[in-house]
Amino acid sequence: MNWAFASSGRVTETYALGLLRNMLEIPSASYQERALADYLAGAMTDLGFEAHIDGVGNVIGVVERGDGPTVMLLGHLDTASGRLPVRSEDGRLYGRGAVDAKGPLAAMICAVAGAADFRGRLVVIGVVEEETPRSRGAMAIRATHDRPDALIIGEPSGWSSVVLGYKGKLDLRYTVRCPATHPTNPAPKASELAVACWGSLVELLGPDAGHDVFARPGATLCRLNADMTTATADLSIRIPPGFDVDGLVRGLRDRLPAGELEVVNSVAACRVDRADPVVRALVSGVRRLHAQPRLVVKTATSDMNTLAEVWDIPMATYGPGDSSLDHADDEHIMLSDYLRGIDVLTIAISELAHSAVRSGDRVIDAPQPEGSLR
User: Fold this and answer.
1) Is 46 an annotated catalytic residue?
2) 245-264 burial string, b = 16+ CB within 10 Å, else e?
3) Which domains does the chain have, with CATH numbers?
4) pLDDT tens column, 339-368
């Protein structure tokens, strides 16, 4: 038997911990993911996957185990910039990407490798450039892959929580140029116009806007580069389901006396309900580990948004790790949580083999196992 597997067919704890540590040792900031992709293609091949790297740099591993549904598990390779020393201390593993999102991706790989009783097709994908505005890796997957029957997105939810949805995102860029003039000239300066653009956006969103509530928009002034003659402002708005993006852009343009407002990127909010088969499968996994599952929504954005725009299928987001540590200088994952995350995913994959069945191009619900969430 391959040394990576226990007699039960599951990936061993030693292998799982080593895989994650090796991933953390390989820097993979956005646009620099190739070394990690190469490593994972080799690791997945050793675990029995058919693995390759696609044209944009995504690493894809496939396990075929007979007739049945196709379940895709998709995480991202890239991390925020900046390296952190990789170290273990008091049951924690530190390193850039430990929670966002190498921990969830490593858990997915281990769970799929050990899902010996699954009948169907399992696809694990590590995509590039999730941390960038364009989400090029996920965009390529939705354009080139057949729609799976079910989808799990790998992001840190906490091992006992399942994410039902994310706010969407609208990225805007305002640029303006003004003739050179003396500072005392009453004519508006480019810097003043850029500041006024931000003020107009805040006013349009209203006094209740903020990042702390899922149902309300929240704006961020991401970058301001300005002097009296030229200015550029990058604005990002996190938007709830049903938000009128076109109306906001029109309203802001109407308030700008000069300059150009460009829509750099726009992705809609997404949300599934608690009866979603993927949600139920993950909840079942958490309960089988004797914990009370939490169902949450996030005010950030993930590749779930990108894929939900075109794939109307059961999906949810799950992964071990504390999302409050995303991009943090002390980013780390509790190793016990990582191992529990593998177990939850393994159980969920098995549940999906029975609860998500194909009917033409749709997934319909089969009778649910006892104890699953309805």
Assistant:
1) no
2) beebbeebeeeeeebebeee
3) 13-166+269-365 (3.40.630.10), 168-267 (3.30.70.360)
4) 999 999 999 999 998 874 444 334 444 333
